[in-house]
Amino acid sequence: MGTNENKKRRRSCPQPGDPDYKTPTQLRNARKRRKSQREKSRGSDSTSPKKHVSKEGSSSRLSSSQHPQDPSLKYIANPKAAPTVQAAKKFFDGIFQSTQRDYQFPIFVGPTQGWRTVARLAVRQQKDQTLQVGLFVPGSHQLLPVPQCQAHHPNINSAVQVLQDVCRQLVVPAFDEATGRGNLRYIAISVERSTGKQQVVLVWKEQESDSTTQILDRLIAKLISVSDQKRKEKIFNLHSLWVHYNNTWKHANSIVDRNGRWVQRHGEDDGHIQEVLLSNSNQPESQLYVPLLFPPQVFRQANLDGFANIVIKIREWLAERLASTADTHTSKEKKKRRRFKQCLELYGGVGTIGLNLVDYFDGLVSSDENPYNKSCFESSLGQITLRDKPMRESRREHIVYHSKSATDMILGSQGRQLLEKAEVIIVDPPRKGLDQEVIDALNASIEGSQSSTSRKALVYVSCGFDAFRRDYQGLVQSGRWTLDHAEGHVLFPGSDAIETLSFFTTTER
Ligand SMILES: C[S@@+](CC[C@H](N)C(=O)[O-])C[C@H]1O[C@@H](n2cnc3c(N)ncnc32)[C@H](O)[C@@H]1O
């Protein structure tokens, strides 16, 4: 190997003092850990009675639908038996028993096949140098192939197959986290439900060599030509093709580098997938039509069908609440209470929840820290129709979006005002739950003049039950909030996870 190449490699490896630098001992230990994990996994494969020959490669592998290590299918025989689902049931049943309410925590489970329309999969080189696409076994960097995964939408499985075949054919170098060499780190695939088309992201590590951009160009050209050929068979029909440059050195748990570039290399317009959550039969009175837009940089629920049921439940709860508030008023005021005055949404994404409730509010302030969301939210807002008519400008101007963290939204006098004005607050935080500042602000004295006629409502959608349990204590122990209703939605049947939907109201004093 030439000296120049050695120099280049040294430059691309972390040097002492760099945050990602590892000492030779640390590197040796990491190698030992990987070796022992590989041996363990070989052991479990060889003793499994379900071992079979897959189409995937030369070696005999288990398909994900049979693999004992596939975390997404561990509880597939009985999704409600997953420990987290059971823990949530015990927790909520206990709350309702302690308040002497005759109520059992309902748990909804949707279809167990083909529900996942978003997948992010790792790409690594196997020992025999074949490139492999798969999931990491939890707690390890051992790759688990997931061909024909039953949780995946069939068009994710077919896209994985095409990508893997093309990459192998072109000898695309998969990223190697031990050496930092190689390029293709991950692939992300999202399926647009109405068309079945695939939005594909290649997560690429740039190396200091021209040839790697040529490899990427060849890969892209080949994928586009396969898409042209296979479009009619509906196996691989590219909606758009993106490259995300993630040049971080070590295997960061995050697939996306916040500072990394995004480049759209193929596809119509702006490469945003369009999804509509509610049908007219879900809400015949409003006939609200909201096209949500999803470029690959924003959060999109992996089980959109299941998530739509959560949005429908929120709509039902709000409708009941409006009706019960109206009952306490004179008939003149009853007329006025067709909508809540103001809603504040934190952790709102592209407006997946908030925009699908706009017919319940005079005004909506939505927010999220991801700067890519705002333009999606605003484009969707411009396309909303109610009973086939565009939303009136006078109503649209009361629906606004802020690219801000939840904490920044609620801090200071402006934050206090927002909380005071809001009759309904919606939070849908990431798995780690609410930021402490948000809990503190929600618990502070936020009874405003606007809400003197009704108690405030807090709608909490949670994808991390442990964090929810902590946040629940924080909210209820303050004496400010009382749980009104809660239910569970198993959005990832087979996994050890539950999405909880909880409705709180400010405690009556
Ligand atoms: C579970 S997603 C929910 C998004 C949206 N409600 C939906 O259903 O698509 C959580 C969102 O919180 C955002 N987020 C994460 N941390 C945040 C923070 N500290 N402040 C504001 N938004 C945050 C993420 O960008 C993501 O869009």
TrEMBL record:
Transmembrane parts of this sequence: none
Example of a GO biological process term: RNA processing
Low complexity biased stretches: 56-65
PROSITE patterns: SAM_MT_RNA_M5U
Region (Disordered): 1-75
One GO MF term: RNA methyltransferase activity
InterPro entries: RNA_M5U_MTase, U5_MeTrfase_fam
Residues binding S-adenosyl-L-methionine, per UniProt: Q301, Y347, E378, D428
Active-site residues (renumbered): C463
Keywords linked to the UniProt accession: Methyltransferase, S-adenosyl-L-methionine, Transferase
Family the UniProt entry places it in: Belongs to the class I-like SAM-binding methyltransferase superfamily. RNA M5U methyltransferase family.
Listed name of the protein: 23S rRNA Uracil-5-methyltransferase
Originating species: Nitzschia inconspicua
Taxonomy of the source species: Eukaryota, Sar, Stramenopiles, Ochrophyta, Bacillariophyta
